[in-house]
Amino acid sequence: MTHEIPSWMQKEESYAAVKDRDRFITKSMLNILSLLERFRENGSVYCNGINALVKLIYTIYAIVLTACSHNMLFTYFLLGAFVIRSCFLRERQLSRVMSGAVIATMMSVLFLLPSVFMGSPATMLTISLKVFFSVGMLLLMSVTTRWNMLTGALRCIGIPDIFIFTFDITLKYIALIGEMSRQLLIALKIRSVGKNDRKATSFAGIVGVLFLKSKETSEELFGAMQCRGFVGEYNAIRSARIRKRDVLAFVLMGAAFLFFLIMEGYIKVW
After folding, report:
1. CA 125 to chain centre
2. Distance between CA atoms of 88 and 108, rounded to whole angstroms?
């Protein structure tokens, strides 16, 4: 018994997909991948340097001193020390620190631009440099310290447990939800054949799935914390050793405070 191939199967078909713009999907995927890369990079930071608690203390200490200073020479001194320290960072870390500091400085310049026309250009220069230094110091601490160590440092200085819990869970779930978003965008891009005139519907579907996933994950987290007996308390790590670099950091903080008193005129040396 012979079987003939149907005529409709013998016809040649040529399908040319209609071109459609998927710039939104591609750009969203790149942004999410960039965010996830930062989280992975922070997780592999080499932290064999200054203790995270000491690093947090001298970062806040330097920012407060700079904000209280009325002498620009002191600001230039700390700014120079910050730039020298930044030169020892890796390429990506240096890019993150400088780009964030420059963006914050440009925003402050934009807000303070009217002061130039009102006869106070020095105000804009002073505040902009202090903003650059403050944001740069925070970013420097961020790229050189693991977030779990930073959480422990916050507990050591007496930050409330609810703040630490919110901070810790937020950082972890940004990475988790970001990975879910990346997978959903990849699935959407693979299934998008031809022209899609209902992009808003597709976007709403992704947001809805993310909402349901986050709700489900939060319930699983709550159940896991109950099983482990978590009562909302973070115990401070007391086994961290004070190293020579930590002692050097305290010495530099003392020298900076002495220089601050001299520049402000509280101590006369000449």
Report:
1. 26
2. 27
CA dist 30 and 230 (Å) reads 37
Q: What DSSP state is assigned to residue 19?
A: P
Q: What mean pLDDT, rounded, does the chain reach?
A: 79
Q: How far is CA 165 from the centre of its chain?
A: 17
Radius of gyration for the chain, computed over Cα atoms and rounded to the nearest angstrom:
27
Q: Would you give the distance in Å from CA 247 to the centre of its chain?
A: 28
Query: Which runs of consecutive H residues, i.e. helices, occur in 69-160?
Result: 72-86, 91-117, 121-143, 147-156
Distance CA 62, CA 100 (A): 18
User: Closest Cα partner for 94 from 52, 130, 140, 134?
Assistant: 140
Q: What is the pTM (predicted TM-score) of this model? A: 0.71
pLDDT band of residue 194 (cuts 50, 70, 90) is: low
In this predicted model, what pLDDT tens digit does every residue of 110-160 receive, in sequence order? 988 888 788 777 888 889 999 999 999 998 988 888 877 787 778 777 788
Give the tokens for residue 89. 């960072």
Q: CA torsion angle for 89, 92, 93, 97 (degrees, to 10)?
A: 120
Question: CA–CA distance from 146 to each of 48, 127, 191 (Å)?
Answer: 11, 30, 38
The token duo for 240 is 């961290």
Helix (H, G, I), strand (E, B) or coil at 50: coil
d(CA 153, CA 146): 11
Written as one string, the DSSP assignment of 148-213 is HHHHHHHHHTT--HHHHHHHHHHHHHHHHHHHHHHHHHHHHHHH--S--S-HHHHHHHHHHHHHHH
